[in-house]
Amino acid sequence: MPDVTHLLTAIERGVPQAADQLLPLVYDELRQLAAAQMGREKPGQTLNATALVHEAYLRLVGPTGEVQFANRRHFFAAAAEAMRRVLVETARRKRRQRHGGGRRRVELDESQLQVDLPNADVLAVDEALQALEKADPSVAGLVKLHFFAGLPLKEAAQALGISERTAYRDWAYARAWLARFLSEPPAKNV
């Protein structure tokens, strides 16, 4: 296999295959660099080490091919700088108002989402569920699996072929809809 420094020189001269040959040679080392960078980041990042390596590598060798690295050490220093810039840009993007701004991420436990339906006897809940089924059959199916069959929302989502996030959103909607239906006087339920 060619030496990294030789490939860097070939890339500098504009040899098109050189960039393709370089990545397999340096990938493991770049991945270790990226893993170290990501280890210093806060938990809950959407960017992982692999994505960081790929983004940094694209910035290094780029589509123009106008890169100049004196040697292997210079290449890895430039790679570390490219990774740092990717992380800084990602952090700035997350700080923007339209990407969540100053909001704090809060993890919710399913037990926090449980709400008892007011005065819910089986016949009243069945009547409410039939009305919900007419209004939104897919949400009614989720209620049947989660409320009546006792499946956790994650498993109910899998059974219905929807995302877990959609299941949580639909469950919140269903609880509010059913609570409102069950709290109204009987004459309005018709």
Explain what the structure shows.
With 190 residues, the chain is an all-alpha fold. The chain folds into 2 domains: 4-99, Rna Polymerase Sigma Factor, Chain: A (Orthogonal Bundle), CATH 1.10.1740; 110-189, Arc Repressor Mutant, subunit A. 66% of the residues lie in helices and 0% in strands. It contains 8 helices and no strands. It has helices spanning 4-13, 16-39, 49-61, 72-95, 122-135, 137-148, 153-160, 164-183. Helix 1 (4-13) packs across helix 2 (16-39). It is elongated. The model has no long low-confidence stretch (mean pLDDT 75).
Helix content bin:
55-70%
Low-pLDDT segments, ≥5 res? none
Q: Any idea what the radius of gyration is?
A: 27 Å
CATH C-level class of the largest domain is Mainly Alpha
Strand content: under 5%
So, CATH architecture of the largest domain? Orthogonal Bundle
Number of domains: 2
Write the layout of secondary structure elements.
Layout: H1 4-13, H2 16-39, H3 49-61, H4 72-95, H5 122-135, H6 137-148, H7 153-160, H8 164-183
